[in-house]
Amino acid sequence: MEARHSALCAEEAEDAVKELRAELAKAGIILPSRGLDPVSFAREAPCPLIALGPCSVRTARRLAAVRR
Length: 68
Prior knowledge:
The chain is mostly helical. Helices cover 53% and strands 6% of the residues. It contains two helices and two strands; from the N terminus they run H-E-E-H. It has helices at residues 2-26, 57-67, and strands at residues 35-36, 50-51. The mean pLDDT is 84.
C-alpha cells in the first residue's frame, strides 16, 4: 500500500511541476532549477517535495508582482 501511495505522490508532484512551469511561462517567468527534490525520495514513505531552486533578483521581483 505504501508503494502505491508513494507512486501516486510522485505522479502528483510531477503533474504539479508541469502545471507550475506552464503557468509561470504564461507570466514570462522561468525557474530553471525547479523539479522534484531528490532528497525527499529518501524518506521511509516517499512523497516528494517540489524544489523551486534559486532565482535571480529580477525573477524574485516578477514572482512578487504576480502575487500583487
